[in-house]
Design a protein that fits this description.
Neuraminidase, 5-stranded antiparallel beta sheet, 345 residues, globular, 2 domains, Alpha-Beta Plaits, 4-stranded antiparallel beta sheet
Length: 345
Amino acid sequence: MVSLKSLHIETGRGPMRRSLQLLSAVALSLGIACSNALAETLYVSDYVAKDIYKVNAAGVNSIFASGMDAQPYSLAFSPAGQLYVTEFAANEIYRVDSNGTQTGVALAPGAVGLAFDRTGDMFYSDFNNGQIYEIKPGHAAQRYSLGGVMTNPYGLAFDSSGNLFVADNATGAIYCYPKPVGIATQSVPFYFGSAGLHPTYLAFNAAGKLFASCAGDSAIYEFAQNGARNTFTTDISTPYGLAFDHTGDLYVAQYTGDTSIEKFTPNGTMSTFTNGIYPAVDVAFDGGLVNTATPEPGGAALLLGACIVGAGITYRRRRAALQLTLEYGAMQGPAGNFIGPVTGV
């Protein structure tokens, strides 16, 4: 029998959070006390300085990647937890590794908006030519949108059903591309736009409401599922990138007028999250999750270890990153009775 001293679980993004609730329940049934904490880090692109910043939960920012080849624009994390960035002036999309190293992954003329679907396919908006492109892993870009609809597509966001929403910065409209059977999909108008409305970035909250930043009228709008628009706030000068954290708070980049990243609670109360990044274009959370379990005296560990291995297999199927670290004390019986540290990808 193994005496488990501690269990530490770190995961990337997406559905693994729900699986950890099950692991926690199993641990508690074995007399192991668990605690969960989302250690999300916010990433911010600085268009002029050509830097990408990271900001911890306390609002302390530091440079994550500096000296980008061109101006970094939109940020997006893949389901596997890799950070990608569009560089509009360079007509390219880069991957930025955990040490800040950047690697060009795709030539993408006019690329501004960036998003991933749940399968790991990359989508970007071609601002200059009014198109949306999809890049499947290991394949060249393919046109996803039928032409002649949008003028200057900007921010992209997927809803929970896999439908792609696109902000047209020129016409003020927001389009929806229903989850397709194949490539070259026709859009469905979600919001028809209005004079003076120039949506830039989009984000969905956990309740399925769509939020759009509109720098032209210094506002952020929220949309019901039927497209009805309400004003969320007008307390920010030039809102650009949007990102929700796991609690439902909204973080907003400001392109001009201020050096701060603002945070809004669900009821619209604003506070400054961090300062000193100007001009900030986009923001994105890495979705990091840390779960720590500490056994009560006499807590069994062998069954928990078997459950963890099963969970690791599930995570592999979801193509997401998982790291498990087990610290154990005295072991009785054959060493093969215990399943040790597991790493799944």
